[in-house]
């Protein structure tokens, strides 16, 4: 039986990690021992200038390599379901779907203001060496020199930057360099959220309904048992009972609701409304 691939799609700081950890708490549901596998997804396209990788970049060797990494994990862990979460995939759903035929998707959306407030902190965060090394284990061998140089430049930029920010963080937009020159860091975070959400929404709407489940972060953390039960049905895991569902979400908390908005403050929130207000309302945050 082919192992089911379940891809979590979401903008940065939208609850993707939380959702992945909840799902992989069940027997037979596995993922990689690191935060994201963008290095694997970019195999054969490491030097592509952004994470908005087109379907035309899915060459035979790219497809074969990426699928092999899923197969290796499935064999190693005896998985029934492989859950994968890489936020940059929200920018390239058609590319992902061309590789992962018949995959299912969970599209999680969070209030953009909360996501932006949280993402802004990550752009200026200190080095977490253990986090870096966990992901570095999955860099394709021939790409190691390229990523090592890129990482070094990113850290040097932060040390030299007056704002102490990284040169790049999160999903790389096709026009990120221009945006960073034109807008404040907060505005760039907002535009990053918007691009991720809009591209993902439009692409997933083109897929069959039985392959996509849309999830509201705020509703999930408020009523986790209800919404995890929906996801379990979507995964066709009829063997998971109510007690197991309740145990899986025991640590899910709603404490972060509105936290990002508070970090931004009313003035920045009002300014960001001009940039992403349309998308916020489209996603139900009007």
TL;DR?
The chain is built from 13 helices and five strands. With 286 residues, it is α/β, with parallel strands linked by helices. It is globular.
Return the string of H and E elements.
EHEHHEHEHHHHHEHHHH
Radius of gyration: 19 Å
Helix-and-strand structural type: alpha/beta
- Strand-residue proportion: 5-15%
In CATH, what is the homologous superfamily?
Answer: P-loop containing nucleotide triphosphate hydrolases
- Separation of termini? 44 Å
Shape: globular
What can be said about the biggest beta sheet?
5 strands, parallel
How would you write the strand order of the largest sheet? 2-3-1-4-5
Average pLDDT, to the nearest integer? 94
**Number of spatially distinct domains:** 1
Instruction: Give the CATH class.
Output: Alpha Beta
Helix content: 40-55%
Tally of strands: 5
> Any low-confidence stretches, pLDDT <50, length ≥5?
none
């Amino acid at each position: 039986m082919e192992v089911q691939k379940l891809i979590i799609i979401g903008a940065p700081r939208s609850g993707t990690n939380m959702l992945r950890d909840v799902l992989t708490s069940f027997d037979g549901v596995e993922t990689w021992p690191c935060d994201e596998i963008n290095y694997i997804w970019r195999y054969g396209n490491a030097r592509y200038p952004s994470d908005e990788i087109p379907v035309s970049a899915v060459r035979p060797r790219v497809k074969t390599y990426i699928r092999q990494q899923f197969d290796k994990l499935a064999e190693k862990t005896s998985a029934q379901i492989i859950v994968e979460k890489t936020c940059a995939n929200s920018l390239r759903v058609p590319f992902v779907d061309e590789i992962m035929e018949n995959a299912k998707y969970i599209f999680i959306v969070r209030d953009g203001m909360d996501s932006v407030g949280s993402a802004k902190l990550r752009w200026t965060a200190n080095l977490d060496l253990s986090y870096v090394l966990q992901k570095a284990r999955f860099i394709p061998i021939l790409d190691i020199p390229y990523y090592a140089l890129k990482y070094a430049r990113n850290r040097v930029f932060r040390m030299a930057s007056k704002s102490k920010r990284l040169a790049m963080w999160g999903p790389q937009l096709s026009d990120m360099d221009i945006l960073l020159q034109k807008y404040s860091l907060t505005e760039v975070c907002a535009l990053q959220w918007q691009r991720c959400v809009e591209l993902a929404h439009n692409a997933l709407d083109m897929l069959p309904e039985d392959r996509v489940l849309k999830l509201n972060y705020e509703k999930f953390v408020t009523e986790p048992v209800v919404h995890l039960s929906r996801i379990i049905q979507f995964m066709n895991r009829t063997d998971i009972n109510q007690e197991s569902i309740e145990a899986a979400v025991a640590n899910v908390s709603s404490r972060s609701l509105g936290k990002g908005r508070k970090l931004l403050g009313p003035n920045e929130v009002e300014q960001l409304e001009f940039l992403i207000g349309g998308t916020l309302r489209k996603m139900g945050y009007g």
